[in-house]
Amino acid sequence: MKVSLTLFATLLVYVVFGLEPETTVVPLDKDQVKEELNEIISLIPRDNITEIANSHLAHDEGFRAAIYYMQQPEWRAMVDSIRANPKWIAFKEMVSKFGLDIDQLIKCTKTFIENANVGDVDPKANRSLAAFVKDVEGVIPIGQMLVTFGKNKNLQNMLQHIQTDESKAVVVDALNIPEVKKYVQELSDMELNVKEVLTFVFAALGWGNFESA
Ligand SMILES: *[C@@H]1O[C@H](CO)[C@@H](O)[C@H](O)[C@H]1NC(C)=O
Ligand SMILES: *[C@@H]1O[C@H](CO)[C@@H](O)[C@H](O)[C@H]1NC(C)=O
């Protein structure tokens, strides 16, 4: 997991800082951004990921324990409380301007969790998403996605809009919601290192250190 994340981060930093510095920020063409983003997202093999998830449900005790935990009322209450928070809504609206539909992603995840048959879960089993994430990383064509990104001017323009202090403030506000902090910590406890990913994203966007934001 570390290797491919680090590779991803390095490439992302390279792509972002490899951009020609522009003196004026060009207005966003929303439709174009959405189209180019869809081109990249369509490279993610969803069927393969579903297959991987089902295989882990069948064979991976740590994954089963994690999904079982996410099926419990406490977890659902935490997610619902995040989604109702005005700071989260502001964040969601900001990224929707960039063509990203977070609700869609949440809905897919929620449907999977609710429908997952975890079978008999050992209450003492350690929750872990590590093996699942490692397998998912194996089917995501990161190189191809970055090449596609590099070809798309509107997406690069979008990055310049995201790099602003205003955008950073919205993201930091959302990350500081107590339930979001708890969520990030819980996922880290399940060996899904969200903090590492956030650290990379902050560095790539030139936002400084995520931990001190
Ligand atoms: C869970 O993890 C702890 C700490 O790594 C370990 O000591 C324990 O044996 C594990 N429990 C099971 C059921 O694997
Ligand atoms: C995705 O699944 C299809 C059908 O099972 C398979 O042919 C293909 O090789 C898989 N792709 C990857 C990247 O594993």
Automatic annotation (TrEMBL):
InterPro entries assigned to the protein according to its UniProt record, in alphabetical order: Ins_allergen
Pfam families listed in its UniProt record: Ins_allergen_rp
Keyword check for Signal: yes
Keyword terms of this UniProt record: Signal
Membrane-crossing residue ranges in chain numbering: none
Signal peptide location: 1-18
UniProt protein name: Protein G12
